[in-house]
Design a protein that fits this description.
Elements lengths: L1 H5 L3 H16 L3 H13 L1 H26 L1 H5 L2 H22 L4 H4 L7 H7 L4 H13 L6 H29 L7 H17 L10
GO molecular function, one term: amino acid transmembrane transporter activity
Protein name: Transporter, LysE family
GO cellular component, one term: plasma membrane
Length: about 210
């Protein structure tokens, strides 16, 4: 009887889990960067990046659920500022990825770390849309604090394997991208996808 007391019906719980899975596993800035990191640095060196995304996003959901999301409703201009900063930062990341060195440089290069990946969530438009959408749509518990805890915890748990899958896939591709020219073409392609991932979300409103 513990679970029915914690969640507002199995249907809502299942719907939220499906939302978290689909939004976490589909292409976006995080998954594009993790895929590229898996190719360039391997899975083991990408693990801090993956953990930073999942834990950082879980904390972001908690903060949004506790009231930060209402800031956008009270001051709409803050969302416009976020979009400008996000576009500028992601454009810079895309440039860095497109101009990354060849295979001889990727073993000594530096992948994104835990703290940087966690901080990146705050300028990731898709992460904002996911967090605000989840907190404004799903109620798993009548108590605000417990509801936020459930939402953020479940999102982090579901997000982790979803993002890690992209790193595993990227790592598996390393052998086919050993030639510097092929790797450079791959990085340029990932940079373009990173920029393309902004298109459907820069016009969204939380």
């Amino acid at each position: 009887m513990a679970v029915p007391q914690l969640v507002a019906g199995s249907g809502v719980f299942a719907a939220f889990c499906a939302f978290a899975l689909v939004s976490s596993i589909t292409p976006g800035p995080n998954n594009t960067m993790v895929l590229a990191s898996g190719v360039n640095f391997g899975f083991a060196r990408t693990v801090p990046h993956v953990l930073g995304i999942s834990i950082g996003f879980g904390l972001m959901v908690a903060v949004v659920g506790l009231g930060l999301g209402s800031l956008f409703a009270a001051f709409p201009w803050t969302w416009q500022v976020l979009r400008v900063v996000a576009v500028a930062y992601l454009t810079w990341l895309a440039w860095k990825l497109a101009t990354a060195g060849g295979v001889q440089d990727r073993e000594v290069g530096k992948p994104m770390g835990f703290l940087a990946a966690a901080a990146f969530q705050w300028v990731n438009p898709k992460a904002w849309v996911m967090a605000v959408g989840a907190c404004s749509t799903y109620v798993l518990h009548g108590n605000v604090w417990l509801n936020v805890l459930l939402l953020s915890g479940l999102f982090a748990v579901i997000n982790l394997p979803s993002v890690a899958m992209w790193a595993v896939f990227g790592s598996a591709m390393r052998r086919w991208l050993a030639q510097p020219r092929v790797l450079r073409m791959f990085n340029v392609g990932m940079a373009l996808l990173l920029l393309a991932s902004l298109w459907p979300i820069v016009g969204a409103r939380p």
